[in-house]
Amino acid sequence: MKANVNDAVMNAHDFDIPTVSLNRRANRIDHCANARKERVCTLITWRWSGPWSLRRFRSHAMSLGRVFYTLLMRSRRRQTLEIPIGFAFSLIALTAGIFGCAATPAGDPLQSLDRTDLTPARQVAAMQILDADPTFPAYLKALRRIIVQPGYSLELRNEAWDRLVAHDLAGLKEILEISFPRMLIYEWRREVCRRMGALGWKDLTPTLVRAWAVVIPAYGTNLFERPEYLALVALWGKDRVPSVLYELLLKSDPITQANLRSRCWELLLATGERARILALLADESSASTDSFILDMRRAASDLSILPRNREEILWVRALRTLGNRAFWDAARAGVERLPMSVRESLEPRDLAVVVAAAAFQPELLSRSRDELFQQVVSALAAGSTRRYGASFEGYGTQLPETPRAHQAELRWGDCAAILIALDALSNPAIRSHLFDIADRDQADRLTEYGGLLRVDGKGRYELVEFAPQSRGSDVRFEASQQMFDAGYDALFHFHNHAQAYDNQRYAGPHFGDFGYAESTGVNALVFTFIDRNTLNADYYRRGQVVIDLGTVIRPEH
Question: What are the structural domains of the chain?
Answer without folding.
Answer: 365-553 (3.40.140)
